[in-house]
Amino acid sequence: AALTVRFLTRRFIGEYGDMEFIYSHNLTVDGREILFHIWDVPNSQQTEEGSSEEKRIQWADSFVLVYSICDRASFNILPLKIRFIKAAKEGQSQEKVPIVIVGNKRDLHHQRVVSSEEGRLLALSLDCGFYEVSAAE
């Protein structure tokens, strides 16, 4: 949620509840107006299987999966999530689904438990993009 709000408002808010939101945002990219719809799902709600997660996957055109570099469990769940997304989206068509893995909390390097190299290697092995960021900065 912090990363989404930072993208939408350029502000950082450190604490969020455990709720899911859909945001809409217009952005001009290369002279073209683009409308984003962002379905922000907290990690605690991403672990469910079944129709709700399937609905989110079918709704989306692309995916940004965020983990905390200070939380190994948030990183370890990514391969399963990405395989689930790819099976649901790419199984229906021959098009590659755009997926980006984002390691957040880069500013908390002293609490890091997931290395940048691990993030890059995971993204490479699953054919995803990769970035490390700090929503706070």
UniProtKB/TrEMBL annotation:
It is an enzyme of class 3 (hydrolase). One of its GO terms (molecular function) is G protein activity. Its EC number is 3.6.5.2. Keywords: GTP-binding, Hydrolase, Nucleotide-binding. It comes from the Eukaryota. PROSITE patterns: RAB (PS51419), RAS (PS51421). Pfam families: Ras (PF00071). It catalyses: GTP + H2O = GDP + phosphate + H(+). The keyword ATP-binding does not apply. Belongs to the small GTPase superfamily. Ras family. This is small monomeric GTPase. The lineage of its organism: Eukaryota, Metazoa, Chordata, Craniata, Vertebrata.
